[in-house]
Amino acid sequence: MVKYFTIKEYREFLNISQAYMSEKLGMSQAAYSKIESTKNTTNLERYQIIAKILDIDVEQVRKNRVEIIYIVCRENINCTDQDKIASEKILNIVRKQAEALKKIYDRS
């Protein structure tokens, strides 16, 4: 399944706060919020920093559209127990990768 996230939705999925993003960009949280909520034409350098933090392509940041391919099983969908376990593992891996990226970025 393919899902499209806005930058805000994807950031929230990764459990990264606006405060964290704004700190790394050297701007106020309100200014960062504006980047996420409008078709802001911020500079390329900021797009590159956002892309690096979120581990996505700069073009995805510029378009405010992150494409994610994933498997999700919910109780109301006929999924096997193996599918449900696989889905949880994938989500946990993505979240762990996000945490690792935050730590790497914090060191740089």
Features:
single chain, 108 residues, mainly alpha, 434 Repressor (Amino-terminal Domain), two-stranded antiparallel ribbon, 2 strands
By CATH, the architecture is named: Orthogonal Bundle
What share of residues is helical? 55-70%
CATH topology: 434 Repressor (Amino-terminal Domain)
Secondary structure class reads: mainly alpha
Q: Concise description?
A:
The chain is mainly alpha-helical and 108 residues long. It has helices at 7-13, 18-25, 29-37, 44-54, 58-63, 81-107; strands at 2-5, 66-69. Strands 1-2 form a two-stranded antiparallel sheet.
Architecture overview:
The protein has a single domain, classed as lambda repressor-like DNA-binding domains (434 Repressor (Amino-terminal Domain)). Helix 2 packs across helix 3. It is built from six helices and two strands; from the N terminus they run E-H-H-H-H-H-E-H. The chain is globular and about 45 Å long. It has a two-stranded antiparallel ribbon with strand order 1-2. By secondary structure, it is mainly alpha-helical.
How are the SSEs placed, and which strands pair?
Layout: E1 2-5, H1 7-13, H2 18-25, H3 29-37, H4 44-54, H5 58-63, E2 66-69, H6 81-107
Antiparallel strand pairs: 1-2
Helix pairs in contact: 2-3
